[in-house]
Amino acid sequence: MSSYRTDAAISTGVGYSIVENASLEGRNTFRVAARAAMLIDVRDAAALPEVFAFDGLHTQPLLILGEGSNILFAGDWPGIVLSMATRGIEILDGDGDTVRVRVAAGENWNDLVYWCLAHGFGGLENLVLIPGTVGAAPIQNIGAYGVEVGEMIERVQVWDREARAPSTLENAECRFAYRDSVFKQQPARYLVVAVEFRLPRAAVLRLDYAGISDELAALGDGEPTPARVAEAVSRLRLRKLPNPALIGNAGSFFKNPIVDTTIADAIRGAIPACPAWPAGSAIKLSAAWLIDACGMKGYRDGDAGVSDQHALVLVNHGRASGVDLLRVARKVASEVWQRFGVKLEAEPRVVGTR
Ligand code: FAD
Ligand code: EPU
């Protein structure tokens, strides 16, 4: 570790504060040590024109950080880290079958899911317990249990760094796809300021993902409702995924690979148990299953390893560095490549590599 000073607030403006040489260890769920030359917390979106008038935001590398649940720091961040700590949930209109809700980027995602349940607005219940902020949700088009957030997003309000002005992207302009969007493709361009959702008033339940119906049945008698679906999904998630409050992780470390039917057929011909789902004209394979089949579940190299609970999750057993975790990621990807000829791609953003 480098010999940086202790954090100290060096200045504040109306709606934002700035810290130099800031520790990011408490701001990433892998809990790896990393520092930023400068950290700006924005509490009021109205401060953005003043914040972006600062020269450094155009001359130094800029990283937008939410709750750090989908990021791996493989080193310090050499420039500025900007975090949206803005709050606010506003019902824009809601007289018809759907309701339109605008949510500030800094709101916690799971809090929003529960707010919607409390107000009788459906649509987000399958996405319960996903860590992170609302502002990060469109970046990789968060998805779980058969639903992707892009289905419920009407538009996204951004600060466009290229235009140096606020702007709005309609759903189609966001180019949502599996763990992908225009925001992920152009990470330096857009700062998400707020997300506008259109949510159904009447429950439109999505129960097709493996395990949901069984879990609902285990909850006992009663019609499925959005709240019961959220409860069922929560139980599944808590059973399957390691809790970042107990062991550092960023959820799935690899995306499920989408491969040609010929590759999928060859693997499934040899091992018919390999899970596979149609993805347009291609096939999506289960990265967890491939890693598990390579015997890598529970693999450990010092304090960095693969979870023994879920093969797709890399874990920090204590003092692992981002580089240690990256070494494990490369080992896992290489085993899968050698055994199956399938390339695994990281899902979290990896920063600080040289
Ligand atoms: P960060 O990790 O801070 O940032 C992620 C990316 O978004 C970075 O590229 C960052 O630059 C960018 N970003 C963040 N905020 C903004 C903004 N306001 N404007 C522009 N760019 C921004 N994901 C799923 O899709 N489905 C799951 O089921 C799921 N389960 C998870 C389970 C666990 C235990 C964990 C730890 C993670 C899981 N994730 C899952 C990943 C993660 O929760 C999501 O990707 C989440 O949206 C990240 O939010 P964040 O605020 O922590 O973003
Ligand atoms: N499996 C194994 N070994 C394991 C774990 C799982 O073989 O150790 C098999 C399961 O038996 C199942 C298959 O892998 O057949 C899929 O497992 P699971 O249902 O847990 O889903 P996943 O594909 O591993 C994806 C998302 C998760 C999301 C869940 C539920 C990706 C990369 N991951 O995981 O998202 O919560 O589905 O929809 O798409 C995340 O993105 O961080 C994340 C956690």
Characterise the protein shown here.
With 354 residues, the chain is of the alpha+beta class. The protein is 25% helix and 30% strand. The protein contains ten helices and 21 strands. The protein has a five-stranded mixed sheet. The chain has a five-stranded antiparallel sheet with strand order 7-8-13-11-12. Helix 6 packs across helix 7. The N terminus is likely disordered. It binds flavin-adenine dinucleotide and uridine-diphosphate-2(N-acetylglucosaminyl) butyric acid (EPU).
Mean pLDDT, all residues: 95
Count of alpha and pi helical runs:
10
CA-to-CA gap between the ends? 16 Å
The 3D shape can be described as globular
- How much of the residues is beta strand, in percent? 25-35%
**Structural class given helices, strands, pairing?**
alpha+beta
What are the bound molecules? Answer: flavin-adenine dinucleotide, uridine-diphosphate-2(N-acetylglucosaminyl) butyric acid
Indicate the multimeric state.
single chain
Task: Please provide the count of β strands.
Answer: 21
What is the gyration radius calculated from CA atoms? Answer: 21 Å
Low-confidence stretches: 1-5
The percent of residues in helical segments reads 10-25%
- Biggest sheet record: 5 strands, mixed
- Side-by-side strand order of the widest sheet: 1-2-3-6-4
